[in-house]
Amino acid sequence: MLKVENLYHAFNRRTILEDINFSVEKGQLCGLFGPNGSGKTTLFQCCLGFIRPDKGMIRFLDKDIRKLTIRETAQHVAYVPQHHTQPFPFQVEEMVLMGRTPHMRGFYKPAKKDQAAARTAMERVGISNLAREPFDILSGGQQQLVLIARAIAQGTDMIFLDEPTSALDFRNQTLVWKALRQIADQGTGILACSHDPNHVAWFCDTTVVLGSPGLVAKGDPSKVFSQQLMDEIYKGACEVSHAMDLKIILPSGLTRHPAEAAGC
Ligand SMILES: Nc1ncnc2c1ncn2[C@@H]1O[C@H](COP(=O)(O)OP(=O)(O)OP(=O)(O)O)[C@@H](O)[C@H]1O
Question: What residues does the ABC transporter domain cover (predicted)?
Answer without folding.
Answer: 2-237
